[in-house]
Write a structure and sequence with these properties.
The chain has three domains: about 70 residues, Structural Genomics Hypothetical 15.5 Kd Protein In mrcA-pckA Intergenic Region, Chain A, CATH 3.10.290; about 90 residues, Pseudouridine synthase (2-Layer Sandwich), CATH 3.30.2350; about 160 residues, Pseudouridine synthase (2-Layer Sandwich). It has seven helices and 16 strands. The longest helix is centred in the C-terminal third of the chain and has 15 residues.
């Protein structure tokens, strides 16, 4: 006997228009992080996978526009939020919003095996009754990758959540990042404007999509400006018009300048420079100093939801990033 009331939805997707027929177990492996095929097949066997409201087996072939839902007997872990007393670097706070400086290494919200120590665990400890966003996440207006440091704005009530989320959607917020990238960026400034979507060959990466595949992705726009050139790396300021997952990491790689020490996108290898052992040692030392991708959300600006005043916040580069830049500056000088 199946009692549907006891099932909780964990994932729901609408299949892209351009999807070629593919077995649902293979299809879901590309979407559900940390899911093995065995796990998905077991879920199908238990009647936990529904397409357009009907339970399907794991050999079901996915079609464009299909509505896929994966259900399990227990609620998703991210709904079981635990308040944790984790220090927050609060840059500004009033009754409507909070601006925090997130350290590198901190995951923003629970999921995929990170169920504690996240920014949200800290936020719900420090603030009560945070409003939920459209993904049911308390306070979150936008996100930063785990290993990206920098400024984030958190909404404290529903009005702020709606107002701030709209600014991000309508591209009126100001977001400037500092990145160190491999190679000597040819132009002093430029604009990257294309569509980003999931990499079919590596589900943990996003890529710039070819023109015939753009319906599978979202438009992404990054403006960049070179701040300094340090032989085999460049320091770049990136201004985001859109905020796609891994946007700067994907865009800079796309124009041939992968972020320094960005493991997921291959920037943790020596991509430019000499073959000298001494140089190799120098880069390895830089990687040790900055054990993450060289990306910091330095400046954040938005219109205050209540006062209507434009507010802008700026943050220092974290010590690991600063030391890495200084190391390159010394290298160039000598």
């Amino acid at each position: 006997m199946e009692n549907n009331n006891s099932l909780f939805e964990h994932f729901s997707f609408q299949v892209d228009k351009g999807q070629t027929p593919l077995r649902i177990d293979k299809f879901l492996m590309n979407f559900v992080e940390n899911a093995t095929r065995t796990k998905i097949q077991a879920a199908a066997k238990n009647g936990s996978i529904k397409v357009n409201g009907v339970v399907v087996k794991s050999n079901y072939k996915v079609k464009p526009q299909d509505d896929i839902r994966v259900l399990f007997e227990y609620p998703p872990h991210e709904n079981l939020l635990i308040a944790e007393n984790i220090d927050l670097d609060i840059v500004y706070e009033d009754d409507d919003l909070v601006v925090v400086n997130k350290p590198a290494g901190m995951v923003v919200h629970p999921g995929h095996g990170n169920y504690s120590g996240t920014l949200i665990n800290a936020l719900i400890y420090h603030f009560v009754n945070l409003p939920k966003n459209s993904s049911n996440r308390p306070g979150l207006v936008h996100r930063l990758d785990k290993d990206t440091s920098g400024l984030m704005v958190i909404a404290k009530n529903d009005e702020s959540m709606v107002h701030l989320s709209n600014q991000f959607a309508e591209k009126t917020s100001k977001r400037e990042y500092i990145a160190m990238v491999w190679g000597n960026v040819k132009d002093d400034s430029g604009k990257i404007d294309n569509h980003i979507g999931r990499n079919p060959k590596n589900r943990l990466q996003n890529i710039v999509l070819d023109d015939d595949k753009i319906e599978n992705g979202k438009r992404a726009v990054t403006n960049y400006e070179v701040l300094s050139r340090l032989n085999y790396v460049s320091l770049v300021k990136c201004n985001l018009e859109t905020g796609r997952t891994h946007q700067i990491r994907v865009h800079m790689k796309h124009i041939g300048h992968t972020l320094f020490n960005d493991e997921r996108y291959g920037g943790n290898s020596i991509l430019k420079g000499t073959t000298f052992t001494k140089y190799k040692q120098f880069v390895e030392n830089c990687f040790k100093l900055l054990p993450r991708q060289a990306l910091h959300a330095k400046t954040l600006g938005f219109t205050h939801p209540k006062t209507g005043k434009f507010m802008q916040f700026d943050s220092e580069l974290p010590k690991d990033f600063q030391s890495c830049i200084e190391k390159w500056e010394n290298y160039v000088a000598n």
